[in-house]
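Box 3.1 — From sequence to structure: 4-hydroxythreonine-4-phosphate dehydrogenase
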Amino acid sequence: MSPSKSALPRIAVTSGEPAGIGPELCLRLAGEGAWRGRAQPVVLGDIDLLAQRAHETKIACQLRPWQPDRAPEDGVLDVLSLPLARPSTPGRLDPGNAGYVLQLLDRALAGCCAGEFAAMVTAPVHKGVINDAGIAFTGHTEYLAEKTGTGRVVMMLAGGGLRVALATTHLALRDVPAAITAESLEETLRILQADMKRKFGIAAPRILVAGLNPHAGEGGYLGREEIEVITPVLERLRGEGMMLTGPLPADTMFTPPLLAKGDCVLAMYHDQGLTALKYASFGQGINVTLGLPVIRTSVDHGTALELAGTGSADPGSLFVAVEQAIDMAERAR
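Predicted structure (token representation):
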């Protein structure tokens, strides 16, 4: 006998920056059937904003206030409505709604921690306007880590056949070398190893590790971080049985022969790893936060203010993020 619809895992989907494409991307969830019978997406956002955006973009869907005891229906979007602080116009940022954007995240996170939701998926936010409102905000990854009291999390993007995790995230390039310490690198690799098993279902993960410097330091002539920090950590963890290859020169690490030997890549800094991934997967890639006590996935793109309100934004990344969150939630059950 198949499970009842009421037993389906619920996935919280935050609609993100109200002036961006997030709300209209979320509207597209009502028309998709890939997860029917597997999960119930619940969109967090102002229901009047969503109705307005549906009218502007001519996206056909029925909106209804979410009730926990109500089963999903095709063509119907369940909305956990939280009110905007100010009316929102597509493409026009308003710092007055920064608190609303964070409230969506807080509510989804609280629901995940309480077991109300099995996972959370986040539409894009605009870091600049949140900071303009006087709220220090680096990104979803750091915000959720702070809110859950998690000492370290790992940002991973997946798509185009690649999984790329980062040893550092949103840092100025000049600050990266000092941020890569033996302690931080070891902790990152342990989180990556654990969540590749738990969230991706890979029993013995093979991890390709990039060097920091050109040619992985060229034996110390182009930098000594590989010799003094990265290699000793890899050797120590290999001694515990972890399957680690590296440090590898980043300019050749993303070639097919090397990628075939790994299940994921650990890059030392943001653009070192994500340039290749976004080339391979833009529009279909997703962001996964590893190390959190909850499951969180996200789109791999920004708010695209210039497209907001047109109905032309591609929902592919959001769909993949929802599907990946469902996969992870099913493994966790």
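Summary of the box: Residues 1-6 have pLDDT under 50 and may be disordered.
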